[in-house]
């Protein structure tokens, strides 16, 4: 037997381990986000509960491997060689696709990924077989492919998106109407009932979805099946009594138990049912190889047309393999940084407060928000004002200190009511779909339920709606992109392997390893990126003198970075260095973004000021205005310089470069003195710096007059003249903005006042 197939089997086994890692990194959000977002229980407890659910679900899983063996294609129509090529292509593309989405921080469906990888590879292999046949045509493709399954999955995608969002929104709206945001007081009266219903729903989900298909379920299916309604009613009564007793004895909310049990249930279902997405193909490849080896040993030859009909038989998963898979899944859950990145996406999109929005608005998100707002206004005109007032009262959030976007990251993204609804609704919908034998992705359901509950909870306000809707559209688009990308990628890879398996298989495996390592290093670098020392920080002081001292570091950093940007612009022009100027553009954009972020924080700064310190707001606003003026001048100088060099216009004359260098040297001294004054908090030096304002301004003005004289007598390049005048004009604006900032500090600073918020070092 050719060693290439043994090599493929070993490679597929190794890829299976990697697939589990990237798969868990993606699917961890399904069961972690509600607990993490609510911060109802500690992160350590969340991980322990989820780990137990994952390990138990994996060990007791029957594998449900039929989708990889015969759910998408008809194995009897393919030979051993073709089956191995298909499985090799599927594992390569599945890993790369999931890792790509994990790196982006977007949740996708491992079920859809594996199914469409199988479909794409099988379709291309079928077309290759049909094209080589004299009797078959494209119409015979249906003999090779289970098209019904693919259509069911696509239908399931569309259905799950709308149903999960709608049901989640409705249940959350009713729950909030009852409990309001002051749910601690309401829990005394309704908490036990709500806890009973939630826990009953989740435990029913655990038995129906989490354990169905496992060997354990066979021992209890006689009791469960046919008695679902009685079990539900009994569970509600038992869990309600438990909830009442728990709250009375511990004086804590039963929602903590709901969130813990719900996390366990979803983790159990994930590993028990989605394990097929990771090891289904490798197991099918192993059974194919084993069958072929047996046939080879028996006959002594390798039949080229040996049918793989053996894959149509149901083969249980090996316990040792399930145990190892469960262990790998648990380790991945604890150590995968990409899992945390994917989790952050959903938590940010469903956060109750302001957060750093990851997605930019687009035309579609704006249109949806405008349409929804118009619809809301229409219903507001119909519903009586008194009814609206009562509803609004239920959704009124408790007054609290206004927190910045950075500060809000340390608080729960949403409360325990929403977390409980997320887990309860997701569990019920998945259980119902399982009982009706409907194909449904746990990722789609859990994500869309979370989006529906956040929408109903008014987390998508006018301030954040376009960003949140854009994020949801990006994720949904990614789901369909997964299906399309998996289909074509797997088809392309299987074509290459079929063309020359001994050459293409090692090349594709090497390429896969390179891409995985590159993505890992890139993500690690991004995750571990530490803010530079000269980055800007928000001011949190409540007095003028406190703001003066807190802002001094920002001023010093802007001056330092501005000095470097200005010098690089002049040097780039002198050397005609397009690369330097392009890099300089990125630096000025980064600086402008940070200054804009400080201005975005003005609302929170003013809201948290003491009544006696309102003057600090005027000072802070003026300072930020001058900083923005400085960055705008630097931005214009940099972009104008890059455009001139990038368009290959004439170089500036030697005399012009010399004059710009002279100005740059004078500015360098001016900026360094300013930076030192602010770094050392020696604000008395500002007066000396301001005294040299006319000297520097006259230097720039003299250069403008020289250029006017040159233009009238010897200048022949309109582009050079325009560039030079604009540079000098914008340099004057930069100088004016900096001097205005210094004057603001000089007038506001009082050395006799000790800043209230600074501690002695």
UniProtKB/TrEMBL annotation:
UniProt-annotated location(s): Membrane
First-listed, main subcellular location of the protein, grouped into a coarse class: membrane
Membrane topology: Multi-pass membrane protein
Any Pfam family hit: PHO4
Family from the record: Belongs to the inorganic phosphate transporter (PiT) (TC 2.A.20) family.
Key words, A-Z: Membrane, Phosphate transport, Transmembrane, Transmembrane helix, Transport
Residues annotated as transmembrane: 6-24, 45-63, 83-102, 114-133, 153-177, 189-208, 228-246, 253-272, 320-336, 419-436, 472-497, 503-521
Source species: Olleya marilimosa
Family matches, as PANTHER family: PHOSPHATE TRANSPORTER
Keyword Lipid biosynthesis: no
Protein name per UniProt: Phosphate transporter
Lineage, top ranks: Bacteria, Pseudomonadati, Bacteroidota, Flavobacteriia, Flavobacteriales
Entry keyword Transport: yes
């Amino acid at each position: 037997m050719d060693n290439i197939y043994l090599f493929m089997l070993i490679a597929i086994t190794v890829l299976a381990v990697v697939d589990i890692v990237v798969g868990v990194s993606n699917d961890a959000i399904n069961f972690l986000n509600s607990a993490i977002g609510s911060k109802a229980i500690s992160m350590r407890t969340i991980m322990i509960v989820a780990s137990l659910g994952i390990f138990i679900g994996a060990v007791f899983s029957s594998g449900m491997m039929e989708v990889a063996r015969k759910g998408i294609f008809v194995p009897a129509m393919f030979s051993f060689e073709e089956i191995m090529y298909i499985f090799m292509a599927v594992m390569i593309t599945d890993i790369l696709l999931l890792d790509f989405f994990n790196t982006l921080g977007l949740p996708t469906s491992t079920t859809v990924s594996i199914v469409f990888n199988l479909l794409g590879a099988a379709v291309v292999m079928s077309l290759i077989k049909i094209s080589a046949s004299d009797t078959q045509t494209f119409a015979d493709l249906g003999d090779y492919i289970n098209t019904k399954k693919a259509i069911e999955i696509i239908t399931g995608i569309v259905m799950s998106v709308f149903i999960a969002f709608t049901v989640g929104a409705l249940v959350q709206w009713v729950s909030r109407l009852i409990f309001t945001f002051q749910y601690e007081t309401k829990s005394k009266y309704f908490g036990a009932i709500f806890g009973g219903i939630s826990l009953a729903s989740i435990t029913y989900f655990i038995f129906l979805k989490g354990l169905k298909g496992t060997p354990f379920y066979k021992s209890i299916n006689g009791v469960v099946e046919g008695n679902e309604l009685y079990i539900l009613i009994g569970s509600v009564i038992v869990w309600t009594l438990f909830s009442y007793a728990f709250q009375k004895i511990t004086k804590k909310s039963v929602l903590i138990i709901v969130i813990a049990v719900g996390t366990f249930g979803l983790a159990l279902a994930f590993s028990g049912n989605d394990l097929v997405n990771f090891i289904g193909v490798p197991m099918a490849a192993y059974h194919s190889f084993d069958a072929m080896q047996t046939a080879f040993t028996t006959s002594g030859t390798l039949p080229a047309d040996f049918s793989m009909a053996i894959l149509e038989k149901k083969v249980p998963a090996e316990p040792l393999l399930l145990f190892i898979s469960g262990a790998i899944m648990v380790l991945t859950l604890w150590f995968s940084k990409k899992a945390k990145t994917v989790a952050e996406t959903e938590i940010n999109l469903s956060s109750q407060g302001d957060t750093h929005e990851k997605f930019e608005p687009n035309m579609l998100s704006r249109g949806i928000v405008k349409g929804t707002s118009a619809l809301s206004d229409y219903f507001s005109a119909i519903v009586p004002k008194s009814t609206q007032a009562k509803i609004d009262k239920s959704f009124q959030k408790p007054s609290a200190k206004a927190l910045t976007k950075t500060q809000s990251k340390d608080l729960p993204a949403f409360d325990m009511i929403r977390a409980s609804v997320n887990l309860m609704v997701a569990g019920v919908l998945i259980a119902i779909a399982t009982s009706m034998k409907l194909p449904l992705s746990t990722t789609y359901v859990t994500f869309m339920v979370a989006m529906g509950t956040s929408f109903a909870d008014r987390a998508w306000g006018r301030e954040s709606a376009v960003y949140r809707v854009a994020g949801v559209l990006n994720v949904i688009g990614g789901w369909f992109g997964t299906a399309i990308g998996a289909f074509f990628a797997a088809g392309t890879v299987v074509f290459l392997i079929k063309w020359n398996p001994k050459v293409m298989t090692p090349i594709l495996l090497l390429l896969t390893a390179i891409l995985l390592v590159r993505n890992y290093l890139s993500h690690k670098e991004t995750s571990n990126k530490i803010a530079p020392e000269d980055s800007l920080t928000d001011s949190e002081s409540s007095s003028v003198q406190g703001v003066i001292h807190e802002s001094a570091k920002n001023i010093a950093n802007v001056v330092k970075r501005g000095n470097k940007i200005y010098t690089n612009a002049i040097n780039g022009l002198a050397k005609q260095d397009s690369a330097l100027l392009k890099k300089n553009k990125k630096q000025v954009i980064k600086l402008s973004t940070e200054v804009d972020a400080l201005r975005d924080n003005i609302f929170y700064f003013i809201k948290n000021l003491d009544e006696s310190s309102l003057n600090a707001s005027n000072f802070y606003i003026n300072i930020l205005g001058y900083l923005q003026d400085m960055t705008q001048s630097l931005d214009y100088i940099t972009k104008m310089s890059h455009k001139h060099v990038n368009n290959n216009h004439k170089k500036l004359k030697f005399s012009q470069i010399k004059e710009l260098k002279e100005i740059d040297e004078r500015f360098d001294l001016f900026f360094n003195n300013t930076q030192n004054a602010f770094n050392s908090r020696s604000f008395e030096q500002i007066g000396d710096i301001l005294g040299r304002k006319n000297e520097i301004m006259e230097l720039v003005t003299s250069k403008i007059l020289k250029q006017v004289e040159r233009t009238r007598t010897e200048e022949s390049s309109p582009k050079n003249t325009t560039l030079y005048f604009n540079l000098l004009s914008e340099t004057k604006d930069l100088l004016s903005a900096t001097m205005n900032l210094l004057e603001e500090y000089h007038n506001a600073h009082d050395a006799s006042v000790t800043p209230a918020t600074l501690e002695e070092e």
